Amino acid sequence: MLNNLEYLWQTLQGYGVQFDKNLIKNEYERNPTVVEAWISKYLGPETLLTRDEIALYNELVKSGQAKKLEEAQDLSAICDLNDDQLKTAIEELQRSTAAIKKQSETLRQQQSALALLVKSNTRNSKARSEANSRQLQKWEAEKEQVNSALEELSQGLMYQISDMEQQSKSSHSDVKQTVDGILKGDDKLLASLQKLAADLDPGSKEDDELIDRIRDLCARYIKHTVDGMRTKLDRIYLEALGDPAGPNSNNVNEQEIKDLQEELESLYSEVLPVAQMSAEQQYLEPALREITLRGNQGQERSYQAMKYIQECLNFLVKRTKVYAEHLEQYQCHQMAVKFAIECGKKELQLQASAQASKPASHGRKQSITQSISRKTRRRSSMFEEMDAEQQMLRNLGIALPTESDPDESHGYLEGVLRERAAKPI
Length: 425
Known about the structure:
Blueprint: H1 2-14, H2 21-30, H3 32-42, H4 51-63, H5 65-72, H6 83-199, H7 205-241, H8 254-357, H9 362-375, H10 388-396, H11 406-422
Helix pairs in contact: 2-3, 6-8, 6-10, 7-8
């Protein structure tokens, strides 16, 4: 019972209905069933207005709009609705109201977020504008410094190009004179070596003929000695076979004869080597030693002369190789100097053409002209001033987009800086 009464009181308070607790309590105690049935039927969102709805209705009554709406509507055409239809309509209205509230809350949140975003964008835009202004000032100052440095470097480059051209011409003549002197000295040395080689004694022709004669005589002597020895052996063999009156003639048989023949054949094969060794030791070697001793003095002198000639030729070959390597390096150096001079002249000409097409203040032009006229009196007819900014970008390999505003140029330069910083060294 207390729960139902508390629910009744809370519901009436929630909808703003004035009531008497004692009167309701007494009525509930007298007939609780009827009161509970009435509560379940009439106390709910389908039959009661909320505080907002009551306030809206009171406003309509005060302003007279409720009466006008009542008169404007033909209530006779409205059919009566039963409780289920009213309940369905009320639920639909409640869902619509909840959706509208949710959408309103979403819109309020979006409005707050949009306000914060606008405020943040305004603050960021202001900070970005200030930062861009400071950065532009910094870049302008750095640009002036770079232009000044490039002007000084351009003037130094002109001096270096002129000096390199002069050094190249003088070094070419010096190298030519040096090489001519070295080659003349080598020619003199070769002529003296040729004269020395012509004076050498290649050996006595008589000694060669004598050696050939001695060898021929030794060969003939060996031949006759071998023939004589073989003849003696044959004679001894025949005498042994033809002497029947010998003390042992009765004991001679065929086997002994065969053994004697084999022994003689083995002696035949040994006669020639023994005869050669004997002839060489007795006649050939002593004769050769005598001839060699007689020609040692001339051969020693020829040997020393040939050794000296060989050393001189080796020295000339090595020195020629060294000179060839140095000349090759000199040629490469000259080609590099020539290429550097051509590149320097082209860059200075490009800078001069870019500077001529770029507008500049009169004071700056006057100061640059005075500086160049003071420092380049002798070379002013050959070279012109070069655009410092374009020269720096060209050396760095950077090409700015054509017809772009300063912001796009700065953004492009920052992107190039990030890309090169990210690359490995």
